[in-house]
């Protein structure tokens, strides 16, 4: 059974991989909670959660810096995770219509990081939170999900989604409405969560806006992840083979010349595609151009 689950995870698309990761963490914490009750150790589950949830206190955060990542895979209850995973599935699929898999990973993480930043700053700037900074924590993938939603809305504001009771609605209207609700609830019971939502929305907007200008901010996330993957696979420790150069009759390095020529041609092709996106949007690209852009972003 366990092998089947591993195989299913490996063959799943990127949206489902993130959903599975969130569900896995939730189930593990539920099981820890069950055993903490059976063993009469109520502090057990509380101790584990305290290692994963994001504290509002800068002092506590400095002691647990990894929580800026772990909190976005943590949820407080069944309805919390169900709603977030439903939204991640629905809007993640829409996101992948316009962007690549690497973009999805980067925007999810950046949304969570900006959500954490907005949360911590709000609790330490506004006097309203002064008495609860030391006891306030953030959990949930909402900021990451809202980054996905906002990026999709900026990329294709006219895209329509079907909502229960409301019918067909423009994605841009839905995103603006969601952000507006978070703003109106900044002083409510879930004020910290709503500040995090705004951070996630900002990250999504920033990504889509800068990508339209030819700057991919998800490289900030994906390059370290690539390095970690290389370390885990052992590739980084493998000795690189020396490049073999061939020389033309004139004594120049033929392989170097060919490599630089190919590199220059590739860069010119990508710049042309990006310029076409800027003028006519992603939808104006041909299938071969979309594939070329995807291949380039995956390197």
Task: Explain the layout of strands and helices.
Elements: H1 2-11, H2 14-38, H3 42-52, E1 54-55, H4 58-63, H5 67-70, H6 78-95, H7 101-125, E2 137-138, H8 142-155, E3 160-163, E4 167-170, H9 171-184, H10 191-212, H11 219-233, H12 254-280, H13 287-297
Antiparallel strand pairs: 1-2, 3-4
Helix pairs in contact: 2-3, 2-6, 6-8, 7-8, 7-10, 7-11, 8-9, 8-10, 9-10
List keywords for this structure.
299 residues; mainly alpha; Rhomboid-like fold; 2 domains; two-stranded antiparallel sheet; two-stranded antiparallel ribbon
The CATH topology of the largest domain corresponds to Rhomboid-like fold
Rg value: 23 Å
CATH architecture of the largest domain: Up-down Bundle
Structural category is mainly alpha
The main sheet comes to: 2 strands, antiparallel
Q: What is the H/E order?
A: HHHEHHHHEHEEHHHHH
What helical percentage do the residues reach? 55-70%
- Strand tally is 4
Highest CATH level, the class of the largest domain: Mainly Alpha
pLDDT below 50 for ≥5 consecutive residues: which ranges?
239-254
Mean pLDDT: 85
**What's the number of domains?**
2
Q: Given the C-alpha coordinates, what overall shape results?
A: globular
What fraction of the residues are assigned to beta strands by DSSP?
Answer: under 5%
Instruction: Provide a count of the helices.
Output: 13
Q: What topology, given as strand order, has the largest sheet?
A: 1-2
Q: Distance between termini?
A: 35 Å
CATH homologous superfamily title of the largest domain: Rhomboid-like
What oligomeric state best describes the polypeptide chains here?
A: single chain
């Amino acid at each position: 059974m366990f092998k089947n689950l591993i195989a299913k995870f490996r063959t799943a698309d990127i949206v489902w991989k993130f959903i599975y990761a969130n569900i896995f963490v939730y189930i593990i914490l539920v099981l820890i909670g069950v055993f903490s009750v059976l063993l009469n150790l109520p502090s057990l589950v509380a101790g584990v959660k305290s290692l994963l949830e994001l504290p509002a206190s800068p002092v506590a955060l400095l002691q647990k810096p990894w929580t800026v990542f772990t909190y976005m895979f943590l949820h407080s209850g069944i309805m919390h995770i169900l709603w977030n995973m439903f939204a991640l599935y629905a809007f993640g699929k829409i996101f992948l219509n316009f962007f690549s898999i690497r973009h999805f990973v980067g925007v999810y993480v950046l949304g969570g990081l900006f959500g954490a930043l907005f949360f911590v700053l709000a609790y330490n700037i506004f006097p309203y939170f002064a008495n609860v900074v030391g006891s306030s924590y953030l959990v949930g993938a909402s900021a990451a999900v809202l980054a996905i939603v906002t990026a999709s809305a900026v990329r294709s504001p006219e895209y329509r989604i079907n909502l229960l009771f409301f019918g067909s609605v423009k994605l841009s209207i839905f995103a603006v409405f969601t952000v507006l609700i978070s703003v109106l609830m900044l002083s409510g019971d879930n004020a910290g969560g709503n500040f995090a939502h705004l951070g996630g929305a900002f990250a999504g907007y920033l990504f889509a806006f800068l990508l339209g200008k030819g700057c991919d901010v998800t490289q900030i996330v994906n390059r370290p992840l690539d390095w970690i993957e290389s370390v885990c696979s052992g590739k980084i420790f493998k000795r690189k083979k020396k490049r073999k150069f061939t020389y033309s009759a004139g004594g120049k390095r033929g392989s170097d010349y060919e490599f630089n020529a190919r590199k220059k041609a590739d860069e010119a092709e990508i710049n042309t595609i990006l310029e076409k996106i800027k003028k006519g949007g992603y939808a104006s690209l041909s299938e071969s151009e979309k594939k070329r852009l995807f291949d380039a972003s995956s390197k």
